[in-house]
Amino acid sequence: MADVTSFSEPFQRFAELFARAKGELSRECFPDPNTMSVATVGTDGRPSNRIVLLKAFDERGFVFYTNYEGRKGSELLANPYCALCFHWPPMEIQIRIEGRAEPTSDAEADAYFASRARASQLGAWASDQSRPMTQPGDLERRVAEVAARFEGSSVPRPPHWSGFRVVPDRIEFWRNRASRLHDRTVYEREGDGWRVTALYP
Fold first, then answer.
1. pLDDT in tens, 3-18
2. What domain range is 194 assigned to?
């Protein structure tokens, strides 16, 4: 890992590590580096966590897409504070991100939805995400109904399906070291810049 003094802000550091993680795929069995956990908090104060895929990132934040009526979508709309976590075991690196989730623009969501496989587009219409299924086969029947509905035409983005951009105010980089003397560096938003601090492991 490059010396922390080389990075006055965290996005370039993330980009370089992310590029390296994608390169590891060609050399060994390695999970998709886009995989990240998303932790949200419900109106009852209870946290929940799940794995999603990072679809874009830049200096504005980290983007993923979901059903806004599912658990994570509805929790983020009610309480936008959330946390992300990447873990790349072959590199012995973990990156923790905390901030606020903001809805992406309709144009961004439309463009990404159009890039998805048709079966995934149909699934976005058919699934009542996070809700109970009444009986076996309900999902398959709903997929068939949606496929018939849009047969011979493109599949538009459902109004309840869109993206979130997590705008970070804290990003921590963790690297494994021998004897659990791990390397930890945290970036915290400070005005228009970032405060960089080394942490004890």
1. 445 689 999 999 999 9
2. 4-116+159-199
User: Considering the domain boundaries, does residue 135 fall inside one?
Assistant: no
Determine if the pTM surpasses 0.90. Answer: yes
Q: What is the CATH number of the domain that holds 82?
A: 2.30.110.10
pLDDT per position as a tens digit, 123-162 = 999 998 888 888 888 999 999 999 999 999 999 999 999 9
How many CB atoms are closer than 10 A to CB 70?
A: 18
| E-assigned strand segments in the chain | 35-41, 47-53, 56-58, 61-67, 81-88, 93-103, 161-175, 183-190, 193-199
61: alpha, beta or left? (left if phi > 0; alpha if psi -120 to 50) = left
Cβ 99 vs Cβ 169: under 8 Å: yes
In a domain, 121, yes or no: no
Active site members: 180
DSSP code string of 2-41: --GGG-SSHHHHHHHHHHHHHHHTTTS----TTEEEEEEE
d(CA 135, CA 137): 6
